[in-house]
Amino acid sequence: MRTGAPMGSGAEVFALPVRQAFLVCNPVAGVSALINGAALKSLRQQLSGVALPESVSASVAELAALLNQAAPCSQRQDQAPLHPQFLGILPTRACNIACRYCDFGAGAASHRTMDLRMARAAADWYAGFLQRSGQDLMEIHFFGGEPFIARDVVETVVHRGRVLAARNNLTPHFEVSTNGVFEADYARFVGDYFDAVILSFDGFREVHDLHRPMDSRRGSFEEVRQSAMLLAGSPAELCLRCCVTTANVDALEEIADWFCREFRPAAVNFETLSMNAKSQAAGLSPPDPYVFARSYYQARKVMQRHGIRSVYAAAQSMDGNCAGFCPVGRDTLIVSPDGRISSCYLPQAAWRQAGLALDVGRISADGSVTVDADAILRLRRLAEDKPRCINCFCRWSCGGGCHVSHTPPGSSLQYQDYCIQTRLISASMLLDAMGEEQAARVLLADRQAMEALALQRSDRIGVSR
Amino acid sequence: MKKPKALRCPEHISWIVDCGGLLLLDFTGNRTKILSCSEGAVWDLLTRNRPEKLRIFMISVILGMEMDDAAAFLSDCLESWLRDGWLIPCEGA
After folding, report:
1. Which DSSP state fits A92?
2. Most B CBs within 10 Å, among A113, A155, A182, A234, to test the B interface
3. pTM of the predicted protein model
4. Residue A347: is its pLDDT beyond 80?
């Protein structure tokens, strides 16, 4: 008889039903296996310290040892000094188009743009901070509204950033999220000076124009397609971001194929619609999460054949940082036109309404910058404090999704549609990574099997928390 | 103070942007010229026809200069590029 090693206190070991089999994994350690019910029973015993017959235990013990690795996470983060994922600049909250699902409040936003001296102060502070802390990557991201309707701000920050980087031996990296509605001439500036462009593009003309009209009379498809073409031929890395609703969920495979052939992007990011009053009034709805998971998987396969990366943000990284993909919790500093520094790019009213306080500092009129260390620390812990996520195998990559729209304080313990699709996509990606593509396909073709996996209350092999 | 001439980049001149600045390429003269990031900012604003006053203001902010110093810096850049044929006067200017 061999005595099992009890599960380490920090180990995160999960088991998910995949029809008659079980996917066991420790996402942080990067270990996963597809096993049968008898093996799962032995594994549970092994991990709880029960002695097993020698004949059964060798391979189970080996798997248990691999799975039984502790996760890092909060202890490391709590001690760490400020390390912003990037500096965000919001040149303006205003926008030049009228997306029917916009939850950034652009329609009602002030047309105020950031003062150029404030923009410079933000870049100066960031460069100084990087130098003092011995970091050499100067990563600046622009959000909106639409950043390129406040071009003076964008250009000032880009040029100031480049001057500072050259002076201080930093490597500049500029990224922008844009609707792509700008003149062909301007695409040269964007392509030349930005390292990465995240372009919102919702697929074929009919749906794109339905989702993202210029105004009540016409869509933005032609402008966006032209920008995508021009940027595809530029040195910038082009990432297309497609919002998925019931209107385009069934066409993701075709959209992915068209994007890959026509624009050769570095990546295509598919994200489902976040419902809000505006999208509801426009009659737009998020897709069924089971249908989305299947469609996303098919689109992913098409993109793999083209050698292009597909992205579903909540399933991207299993990097042991439970802050997930959201900038909140990663020390991110995003400067608004009014000088507030926040970790979230959504409007202040949206996160306040959700009971959150996401401001972490301020730039004053004289250009001095204050960052509140306590606020940074509080936000680092935010992703860990998600009761719904505590027993979910996706907590390391998803981190509860958006703190404002998916898991605000006091949100229900029940899995939401967002959780369901994230769980299915994450599981299918783990199966793919193990070479079990057929198991992933069969799972995603079987609604009952999908429900069994997606709705399982606790994925933990050991005691649920 | 002289009224600044309207200038433009001739068709045979192109450029490449990298993190150290900007490389001008003259396809007719088979020559190149490296611009620093500061000079590159002037080149960018000029070749995209940003208005003169705005150029001076933006360069003053980008380089942390007084407006007069920014105007002088711009003027020096433009004169030197015009002299060396990297820029030419606009027709009718």
Report:
1. B
2. A155
3. 0.92
4. yes
